[in-house]
DNA sequence: GTAGGGTTAG
């Protein structure tokens, strides 16, 4: 059956937690209204600057404004965040401020821009910035390397990621257990588990692999649904004298659910309880979500009630799990009941909570109510994010209400949220369904806009739009797109406007 | 940003 020595009753920890909860029920779990007073007060200077940067026509105004601005690392970081989905402009802004006579960039701003360069696959600029950090003696830090490595991995260049890790010390940043674990985690999260495990086996002695290292690898195997491999790794961990933690158990538990091994998941959960392992709010949330996804709503609800009875208060993610599965496998109306209940209890729904509800409503075709919830988000100081907009835009497109999708897109651009690659892909595809010449013009404009913002449209998208424009007699515009495409082909990652 | 629990369509 289950690996027996994985289960060592951890009664000391368990008793400590229970006692703590009984003595200070408020301290750990009482949801608090978030206080925005200190994050918001230094005016919305970042918004103003980001707007000036995005409006091409007011260059002199921008320069003038920047000269008068009292720059701080925090302000620069916030502006960079606002320009997240407008990579080229963000880099330009960073370089512009770098010439400021009395302001010097912080390591954190460097990290942001390095991340953006990595996303744009402009590796030359990325490494130049890393070297510049060396020169200025503000880095690079382990965090900088985590960023670089993650960008290589997500671009499918795992080998370069590993090489980067091995070269860290040449930049004055020695590898340690933390950075080792980070690399393993990044490889695992991108499903390169075999590679991570191979690397782990070679270096585990040198870096003195710890519980975290083993958990990371086990989680990797779970992500690709190989729970038996995960169990093997954990056996090995125990043999080496490392104690499993509550995270270890939670990783396996989630792994069983993800691999649709519902029976094993349930048995494992029972064993955890029986053997006195620590059961925390993450454990309960995992079980609620797991059963819900498997369509066992009643069981999910039962566990939710059980955790409360056990004195383990749900957190916002717990509610998100329950609300999410109610939307998907039960009824949005029931999900909304739970939503209202959580609000009544004083929890503050976060963006995910709203997105889950909004998706549920869209799925049922209740677009008006979905938009109501979006309005409610704003009232709740919980601004809709790209995903929120993408959900609504996608559903408007799917139901053929292209005008409304475009209207939402406009609102998004006028607000403080920039579209991402998904937004453009969804909208551009929608421009082909009505077979209208005007729609193709919009598609063309969207294409140019996304290129300008540093996103990479697929060859297919280019060709589709070109064909469309030629068929509808827009030779002129087609030529313009063709010009962009050819420049784009020659200068893949650094297309300049 | 050293591990585990909420959003991705069919």
List the helices and strands and how they pair.
Layout: H1 11-23, H2 25-29, H3 37-40, H4 45-54, H5 59-68, H6 73-82, H7 87-98, H8 107-119, H9 123-136, H10 142-154, H11 158-167, H12 177-189, H13 193-203, H14 211-223, H15 227-239, H16 246-258, H17 262-274, H18 281-293, H19 297-309, H20 316-329, H21 332-344, H22 351-363, H23 367-379, H24 386-398, H25 402-414, H26 421-430, H27 437-452, H28 459-471, H29 475-490
Helix pairs in contact: 4-6, 6-8, 7-8, 8-9, 8-10, 10-11, 10-12, 11-12, 12-13, 12-14, 13-14, 14-15, 14-16, 15-16, 16-17, 16-18, 17-18, 18-19, 18-20, 19-20, 20-21, 20-22, 21-22, 22-23, 22-24, 23-24, 24-25, 24-26, 26-27, 27-28, 27-29, 28-29
The chain binds one DNA strand of 10 nucleotides through helix 10, helix 12, helix 14, helix 16 and helix 18.
PPR repeats: 210-244, 245-279, 280-314, 315-349, 350-384, 385-419, 420-457
Family: Belongs to the PPR family. P subfamily.
InterPro entries: PPR_rpt, TPR-like_helical_dom_sf
Name a few traits of the molecule.
disordered N terminus, repeat, 70% helix, disordered C terminus, globular, DNA-binding, Pentatricopeptide repeat-containing protein, mainly alpha, 29 helices
Describe this structure in words.
It is globular, with a radius of gyration of 26 Å. The N terminus and C terminus are likely disordered. It is mainly α. It has 29 helices and no strands. It binds one DNA strand of 10 nucleotides through helix 10, helix 12, helix 14, helix 16 and helix 18.
């Amino acid at each position: 059956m289950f690996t027996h020595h994985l289960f060592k009753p951890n009664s000391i920890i368990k008793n400590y937690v229970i006692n703590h909860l009984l003595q200070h029920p408020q301290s750990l779990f009482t949801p608090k209204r978030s206080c925005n007073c200190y994050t918001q007060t230094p005016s919305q200077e970042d918004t103003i600057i980001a707007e000036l940067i995005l409006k091409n026509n007011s260059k002199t105004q921008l320069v003038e404004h920047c000269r008068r601005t009292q720059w701080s690392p925090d302000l620069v970081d916030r502006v960079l965040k606002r320009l997240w989905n407008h990579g080229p402009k963000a880099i330009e802004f960073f370089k512009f401020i770098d010439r400021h006579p009395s302001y010097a960039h912080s390591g954190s701003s460097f990290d942001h821009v390095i991340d953006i360069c990595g996303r744009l696959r402009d590796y030359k600029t990325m490494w130049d910035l890393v070297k510049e950090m060396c020169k200025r003696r503000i880095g690079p830090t382990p965090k900088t390397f985590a960023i670089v490595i993650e960008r290589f991995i997500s671009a499918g260049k795992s080998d370069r990621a590993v090489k980067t890790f091995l070269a860290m010390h040449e930049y004055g940043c020695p590898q340690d257990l933390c950075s080792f674990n980070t690399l393993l985690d990044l490889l695992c999260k991108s499903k390169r588990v075999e590679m991570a495990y191979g690397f782990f086996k070679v270096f585990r002695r040198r870096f003195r692999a710890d519980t975290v290292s083993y958990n990371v690898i086990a989680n990797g195997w779970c992500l690709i649904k190989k729970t038996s491999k995960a169990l093997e790794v954990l056996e090995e961990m125990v043999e080496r004298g490392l104690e499993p933690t509550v995270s270890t158990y939670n990783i396996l538990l989630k792994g069983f659910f993800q691999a649709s091994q519902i029976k094993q998941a349930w048995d494992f959960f029972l064993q955890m309880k029986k053997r006195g392992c620590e059961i925390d709010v993450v454990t309960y949330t995992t079980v609620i979500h797991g059963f819900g996804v498997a369509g066992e709503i009643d069981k999910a609800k039962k566990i939710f009630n059980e955790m409360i009875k056990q004195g383990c208060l749900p957190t916002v993610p717990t509610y998100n799990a329950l609300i999410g599965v109610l939307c998907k496998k039960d009824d949005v109306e029931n999900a909304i009941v739970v939503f209202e209940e959580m609000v009544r209890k004083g929890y503050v729904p976060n963006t995910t909570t709203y997105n889950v509800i909004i998706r549920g409503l869209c799925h049922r075709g209740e677009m008006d109510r979905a938009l109501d919830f979006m309005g409610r988000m704003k009232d709740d100081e919980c601004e809709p994010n790209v995903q929120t907009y993408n959900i609504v835009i996608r559903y408007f497109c799917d139901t053929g209400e292209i005008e409304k999708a475009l209207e939402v897109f406009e609102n998004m651009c006028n607000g403080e949220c920039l579209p991402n690659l998904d937004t453009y892909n969804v909208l551009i595809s929608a421009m082909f369904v009505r077979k209208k010449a005007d729609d193709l013009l919009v598609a063309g404009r969207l294409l140019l806009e996304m290129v300008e913002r540093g996103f990479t449209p697929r060859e297919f998208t280019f060709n589709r739009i070109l064909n469309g424009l030629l068929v509808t007699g827009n030779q002129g515009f087609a030529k313009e797109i063709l010009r962009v495409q050819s420049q784009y082909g020659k200068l893949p990652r650094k297309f300049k406007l």
